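User: These chains co-purify. Model them together.
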Amino acid sequence: MKELLPMARKRRPSDLVIRGARIANVFTHLYEEMDLAIASGRIVGIGHGYEGHEVVDARGTVLIPGMIDGHVHIESTMLTPSTFASAVVPLGTTAVMADPHEIVNTCGMKGLEFMAQEARMLPLDILLAVPSCVPASEFETPFEIIDATHIEQAFRRGWGNHLGEMMNYPGVIAGTPEVWSRVLASGYRVRTGHAPGVSGRDLNAYLLTECNSDHENNSAAEALEKARRGMWVMIREGATERNLDDVIELLRSKEWAFTRCMAVSDDLTARYLLEMGHMDRKLRALIKNKIPPFRALSMVTLNPSQYFRLWDRGAIAPGYLADVVMVDSIEQCHVQKVWKRGKLVAENGKPLFDFPPILGEAPVSNRGFEAPSREQLVVQASENAFVRVIIVQPGKVTTDYAEHQAKVVDGYAVPDPNRDLAQLVVADKNTCSGRVAIGFAQGFGLKKGALASSVAHDAHNYIVVGTDTESIETGFRYLAENGGGIAVALKDQVLASLPLPVGGLMCLHSPQETADKLAEIDDAATQLGVTLPHPFMALSFLSLSVIPELKLTDKGYVDFTRGGALGLFVGEEETL
Amino acid sequence: MKELLPMARKRRPSDLVIRGARIANVFTHLYEEMDLAIASGRIVGIGHGYEGHEVVDARGTVLIPGMIDGHVHIESTMLTPSTFASAVVPLGTTAVMADPHEIVNTCGMKGLEFMAQEARMLPLDILLAVPSCVPASEFETPFEIIDATHIEQAFRRGWGNHLGEMMNYPGVIAGTPEVWSRVLASGYRVRTGHAPGVSGRDLNAYLLTECNSDHENNSAAEALEKARRGMWVMIREGATERNLDDVIELLRSKEWAFTRCMAVSDDLTARYLLEMGHMDRKLRALIKNKIPPFRALSMVTLNPSQYFRLWDRGAIAPGYLADVVMVDSIEQCHVQKVWKRGKLVAENGKPLFDFPPILGEAPVSNRGFEAPSREQLVVQASENAFVRVIIVQPGKVTTDYAEHQAKVVDGYAVPDPNRDLAQLVVADKNTCSGRVAIGFAQGFGLKKGALASSVAHDAHNYIVVGTDTESIETGFRYLAENGGGIAVALKDQVLASLPLPVGGLMCLHSPQETADKLAEIDDAATQLGVTLPHPFMALSFLSLSVIPELKLTDKGYVDFTRGGALGLFVGEEETL
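Assistant: Joint model of the two components:
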């Protein structure tokens, strides 16, 4: 920094001067029409009369700080860190707080190391969480269990910046030693939370962990209670789960709200990034919802930087990283240029960098998983048996619990498309134990065939939903052969597919190709009768045991609201 | 924390439940009428129906977080840490960020160690700065120079929490390697600033240090510019220097202002604490100045905690330290009870603890300094000589520069009470080099006698202002004999005095005794003609070289606005 004094003092020209723009000041909520001087990747001057080796005429534009996503799972986009960067940097994002718990579920510490290595080379700061919940609960089967020792080791190796979302709130509240040891292994670092619906004394108990942020706010009342207890409110606006409408009243009505809230993504898709945007989209959405522009801007810049203790980011100020975005206006947020550490890295929506999808070596994702046999995919049932059924809710990660009379044919409980009752199968591919669990799901609208996916939060074991055993078998075969992917199957045919060779989660395609492939896949699903929007996104959450109500993992049904493991048949003694 | 879960969950009674109060929530700017449950010194529950081993009926009261002073020099009160705690804890202060640069000037690292040891035993969290500017400039003579190695060592030994105010802004801006090495020695810790009047490109340059707070804001415009550049604004309301009136318009008019501003003390007196209060006084003053109560409350609780990264303080929330203050209302802030880490430590204005003034061993402050000889106290001058004169400004630490014709008697420049021209003498007691510097000061109103003090920022060499050589000699003799103190002398008599044996800065009296002694001393000064309010406070700033304009250290006149060292006589070549 000392070397930058002559530039700050105008004794020597800076590397770059951006001249004539209105600089958005997130500290004081005003514009300043001044030169912005940059040297060695840092902001060295804001004022008049700065000279630079390069001068950019920015009249008529606005400069905002590089935007920060406070919570995102890059794997959800199915893009690698490299292609993710090529998608979001041109949208004005210069840093993301990424929780790689998907790939850590499928590849263990190797997955975390892979993400950390990839992140180092990109013109996007990917600050990684060390996942706190791999597995998310005892009902899920990851590649390896990430315990307190792993977490300490990951931080020591510099792979992580903060503790990933502590989703095991029942474990926290119950005082499970293993859960608490993971929390404490994060030391003095920021600890992020995840406590949907946790309230009252349970919230008090949860906060003893100091996991003091939450993106699971399904109502203004929930967000308000969490804010009262000291949590930073992360307003999730992802591809399918969106809470802005839920909490907007809070943001509008409270003077303090702009200080301890931030907008985050959680889960995104490549298509959403291409069509809707990233943090720019959230900024526009906040402002359209009548949040004053500077307050909204704080929620995607200064506030995440303050929460994550990134003291030299989130604002345009002397000494700060020169992560600067040129836009037409805060309100429209059409991004014209993006500078990352003073280097122009995107212009007019295009990245000015071109990296291969994988820069290093991807961790092995296919370890000889064998598709389940036909015998494993059928269930014997008595006449008049009642089965538990997951009711899929459009656009929600939560599900409802139901009990329906099974359709029994030849002594087997089988799918019943007339009642939209599809068979759901989860197979343990992470440890290749051969374990397979079967359930039923309602809400997809599937009339025939099957949907198969290696994306199934959080363990990402293979999941297939289908109306007949042959289609389900085809789905599993596709996954086994490709080391993961997304596929629509009908009988012995794969109608549309996208292989996900990187950890069974990420593909080697560009954002546009990825989105196109997924559109084809959704079309194919529609042809099979699917009426649910984003059926594969919905499918991917049906194994997530920590979200209520009923879920299916490779170990069977789980419903935390009903005490944990449940059998397939109502009245049957519990299978676990 | 895990051990506290049963209390948070109401499975077991807490240690203490405060029931029926309205709890002030600084996150959401509202009151909640709920039980507050405390166990093992932490807040474990906010809600209804908590049970406790001890239950306090708090109906009709308000609970606020323990207040935090973001910047104070305890030595200025002349109280030891122990007696300071007995004064401020009953006023609702539970933590202070104390910069001990006074005692470090007079006693070096031993002084810092002394403060750190004393702090450990008290029911007040004294979080110490490691001073960045000992000496404040090359023109001052401390006991030992605190360089980068000392600073690193102090942090390593756990004596410091943050880097003390970086006052040497000329050195910072000029890129002086020694100054920068001290800044960098603080590592990742909070670095506090001090940059009066620094603006424009100089402010940009200064901020490359990341010293990002400032209590030197003499106008709303100055505070606004600093806030724009990312600095946290410390609103100083001390015993003599008060900037609330200067910046109030900013606080009133800007929606963001309550988020990055805090009220601090800087320098206080025992009398001020007794008569006006501490942070309670600042809270009242903010509210009287039309700052909404919760915004004002944030400025003495949450905001300092956020700036200083004290993540479990500054609010009443689960997991936070149980530093809680019971008041009648935020607006009146009459403190009824104070709990520190869950323990009742003050009630109805009285501390419930009683420690001796010094708990450990005080560093030696009297190292054989000898009072200057008569020859050292007189100045030869030619007829028609012009001397430089410090013009003291009532209630300000800044001075004005003037040039006046000297009164020359028998070839010596002598004081001239008719023109309120007193002689000012500073003698190096820190290193006992025998060095003495002489100047003139206008503004005291002194008609006869002398005021002597061992409190003379920042080096605290001995300073005496007087109208005749005998009185000045008596003053120095008092200081030498008592290892420091405050005295009013007339000819060979000491009219009133207070010995300051602890580092030459702090006394062994209670706050009330200290205030009474100082009142006697002020009375005695008034009898000598002094018209300046707080003459000893004013005197104590006349050696502070880093504040404009003219100052006198043991090395002679200094005026940074005029390039540094200056001779006594106008036109004379510079003496340094």
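Chain B touches chain A through 55 residues (CB under 8 Å).
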